[in-house]
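Researcher: Next sequence.
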Amino acid sequence: MRLAVPFLGALAALAAWAAQMVRWLRVLQREHYEAAALRRFLGRWSAPEVRPASSKVSGRPVTPSLVLFVVFVITLIAGTLPLAVLASVLYGLTCPWGLTMKGRTSPLVWTRRLMRVAATATVLSALVVVLGAGAQRRWWGVALTIWLVPLTLDLAARLLTPLENSQAGRFVERARRRLDQVHPRVVAITGSYGKTSTKNHLYDLLAPDGAVVATPKSFNNRAGLSRAINENLVDGTRVFIAEMGTYGPGEIAALSSWCVPEVAVITAIGPVHLERMGSLDVIERAKFEITAGASVVIINADDPRLARWPTRLSARVVRAGTGDDVDVQLRDDGDEWVLRLAGKSEQRAPRIAGLNTTNVACAVAAALEMGVSADEVGARLRRLRPVDNRAVVARAASGVTVIDDTFNANPASALAALNLLADLPVTGRRWVITPGLIELGAEQYRENAALARRVRERGAHLVCVGRTNARALLAGYGEGAVRVDTRDEAVARVRAELGETDAVLYLNDLPDHYP
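Model: Next structure:
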């Protein structure tokens, strides 16, 4: 019996540690192995829950994680070992409350990289236990190991960075050789938002001439871009459209050093990834890197920051947008687009609902640079397709008009989606289902409160999903907002309450490693 208790305690502690490892490995993988992300998400999951005052279920002033941590600290100070271990095991098995091991939207994938991180973190955890045993504090070491999982994973990811860079370098070198062999014309597209849509529009405009390859989905970092080239670039490819993203200065410069663009397109400068980069000036500098080797730079002239770029560039600049002082103008006129090019007659095409006109203008400018004639590019505007999960308007079986804008969201796209909702020809209620906007740094609370106010100003009902932005959204909207835990709950509510005269906007959708 005396041996059974320590054995069962060790087994329970091991299970708790393993549960923590799986949870936080999933967060790390979803955040592209950025070590610092673990600290941010630990803070988010530890924050108190918020619900509207009118809710029948009140928010918890503290989370179970904080309660168990306080118990652990008190027992640690008091030297009450059994309670400290018990608090640690309970935390490891159940917390953060709501962060599941399996995952609903982003399950863990046991890649080689993930297994290397897990193995390194396991060694670090074992070291903590050994040091604790050496100091005759074995059980304290075991308990601490459970609490330290996010930090050990953070350290493991940092220690493995040189190795991962070396591994990635092999794929990059292979991609570089493939580009040299095929030698396509390269169009590189970046921007705080709109880059994936612009990429897809350009592909649609070039596709009739054949031999065009574009990076799939949002494959826009080093791993994604090299993979797209190695797997998809075939002999005879005429044009390669490369989406390039960044989490900080230097990344796009590195991408464009081996995937050198002939034409660079910049869609917007805005507060996306502001949490990581700190300021709009840093974001602008990071995006400017794409212009270094380009012969032609296409800018969204509707963007105030980008409008100042021509004086800074030695390459030929093409200004695209909806205003008058541009080289490629595309503007809305009722249900039509009006295309105007210098020295060419005006062309008209049916406007496709949900598409951002400025993004289409940038795609048109790039298509012209790739050799599509002015007349032909105007005709091909009819070929453009809505981009999945980006302001796509559809009719549900129940008759409810649905706007799917769940891919991601930023202040500009959110405003456009709200305006689209307001303009729908429906006579019933309008609802907005959203977890709010993320990665806005110090501006996040203000932007989400402003978003909620705009929802109310347009006479729409607000359903806030999750805890991430609940405080700001509920404060901005005021009385009458609804808070649910998951998007599935929101969908069930829509199906139960809305009918054929109503409309709903699904604005943004966070993966479930967000609270």
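Model: The chain has a mean pLDDT of 89. The chain has three domains: 4-159, 170-383, 392-507.
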